[in-house]
């Protein structure tokens, strides 16, 4: 059974960097075929995709957040991490890590998030 | 403002069939497949439907997904009290080069 678990500080000061780590069990990040993703949910709001990393290290982020985001992977530790710089109160949210299953063929992309972490609430406040 | 559009709320009585719609555009639903997620209060989203109409293991067939053109819908038959949750649709977006979500629909079982 694949499990993901977020960890990191629950409180970050404005202008600082939010750092979260996701630890994966029951699967190998190095096995390929999956994209290890970050998604956030503002209080009482919907889901917002932040970005993903592939086991090779290639990453892609939501253009709305791209210049503030760093996503990295440590396959030996079965972990991937998110850093979001220059945070403001608008970055207060529950942050989820998730495994995305995606393949594209004949011009059609089949994408879904089949496993999720329990979520980590990060509050930005002084 | 979510890329995919869902009604903010839906409701039904036990045993009823309810549907939740999800509207997108050519670059997402119009081209790629749709997935649906159920988020019970205080928990992480759970995959409910993938590839428009496929069930992950363990999901009852009371839940069914449909897609036509740039719209999709989730149908829940034999509504149960435990179905009370938020439901989200999602699809890959070719313009964003990433996945997009609907704003979510809060389902109330009366």
Keywords:
heterodimer, A: 126 residues, mainly beta, 4-stranded antiparallel sheet, 11 strands, 0% helix, 57% strand, B: 110 residues, 6-stranded mixed sheet, globular
Structure in words:
The complex is a heterodimer of chains A (126) and B (110). With 126 residues, chain A is an all-beta fold. Chain A has no helices and eleven strands. In chain A, the strands form two sheets. In chain A, strands 2, 4, 5, 6, 9, 10 and 11 form a seven-stranded mixed sheet that branches. Chain A has a four-stranded antiparallel sheet with strand order 1-3-8-7, with no helix packed on it. Chain B has 110 residues and is mainly beta. In chain B, 0% of the residues lie in helices and 45% in strands. Chain B has no helices and nine strands. In chain B, the strands form two sheets. In chain B, strands 1, 3, 4, 7, 8 and 9 form a six-stranded mixed sheet that branches. A three-stranded antiparallel sheet of chain B has the order 2-6-5, with no helix packed on it. In chain B, strand 5 and strand 6 form a beta hairpin. The radius of gyration of chain B is 13 Å and the shape is globular. The mean pLDDT of chain B is 97.
Secondary structure elements and their pairing?
The complex is a heterodimer of chains A (126) and B (110).
Chain A (H helix, E strand, L loop, with lengths): L2 E5 L3 E2 L5 E8 L8 E8 L5 E7 L5 E3 L7 E6 L4 E6 L8 E13 L2 E9 L3 E5 L2
Parallel strand pairs in A: 2-11
Antiparallel strand pairs in A: 1-3, 3-8, 4-5, 4-9, 5-6, 7-8, 9-10, 9-11
Chain B lengths: L8 E4 L5 E6 L10 E6 L6 E4 L13 E6 L2 E6 L8 E9 L4 E4 L3 E5 L1
Parallel strand pairs in B: 1-9
Antiparallel strand pairs in B: 2-6, 3-4, 3-7, 5-6, 7-8, 7-9
